[in-house]
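Async update (no meeting this week)

Hi team, since we skipped the sync, here's where things stand on the single-chain job. The sequence we agreed to prioritize is pasted below, unchanged from the tracker. I ran it this morning and attached the output directly underneath so nobody has to dig for it. Comments welcome in thread, and please keep replies under the output.
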Amino acid sequence: MLRNGEVEMQARDEEIRFLRMQLAEEQRVVSLMKRSLPSKKATEEEIVTLQIEVIQLSRVARFVFVWRHKANKKLGRRSEPLCPSNNTKSYVLYM
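Output:
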């Protein structure tokens, strides 16, 4: 009877050891995944930087559009709409 108990204890110890190894492997995988994710703070900073760049480029584009429009007007050229059937304010500016 004691022999059966020892065998059972040894089997349980093996099972516990195997489960601990599995747990360690799962923790290692989770740790690797966490390191591979981008930092939330760095991502937010990049978004802010890109938003600022978009605003600056929009201002430059607007400036160039107005400057070309004035130059065309001064030279007697006409700025034509990109799509004549559409009532948008998009124009082709000749330079």
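Quick observations from my side:
DSSP finds two helices and two strands in the chain.
The chain has two domains: 1-37, 40-95.
Reply here if anything looks off.
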